Amino acid sequence: MKIMLQIGIIFGVCWIGEGISMLLPFPFPSSVIAMIILFLLLLTKALKVDHIRLKAEFLQKNMAFFFIPASVGIMENFDLLKENVVPLVTIAIVSTVLTFGAAGMTVKYLMRLQEKLRGGKEHDRVDV
């Protein structure tokens, strides 16, 4: 019975996210809204991790199952993907490099900010 309650909580959060997505004047994924709501509920301790632990562990253990529809979609559209392999690979490489660069610059900035907040003291500093 505990797992049914946890499924109900997750389903309810997803349902609320779907409702908010419909009310917005611009398109926004309801799954992202639901994740934000779930994060806020956990952050404010309105929902405890133990309230959804069993369901979360089940979903995590069976995560590969959720990639089957995407894999089938790729196989169904393989001819289209084959025709556009160069642009797709280029986009993947460029976006990966940009993501790594942005992450590195963010870490560098935050390390400098931490150093300033400490008053210039170099405790636990790691050079990048």
3D architecture notes:
This protein has 128 residues and is mainly α. The chain has 2 domains: 1-61, no CATH class; 70-128. The protein contains 6 helices and no strands. It has helices at 2-23, 30-43, 53-61, 68-76, 78-83, 85-117. Helix 1 crosses helix 2. It is extended, with a radius of gyration of 21 Å. The model has no long low-confidence stretch (mean pLDDT 89).
Properties at a glance:
128 residues, mainly alpha, 6 helices
Write the layout of secondary structure elements.
Elements (H helix, E strand, L loop, with lengths): L1 H22 L6 H14 L9 H9 L6 H9 L1 H6 L1 H33 L11
Q: What is the chain-wise order of helices and strands?
A: HHHHHH
Total discrete domains: 2
Q: How many separate helices?
A: 6
Poorly predicted parts: none
Q: Main β-sheet: number of strands, strand sense, barrel status? A: none
Straight-line N-to-C gap:
51 Å
Entry summary:
The protein has 128 residues and is mainly alpha-helical. The protein is built from six helices and no strands.
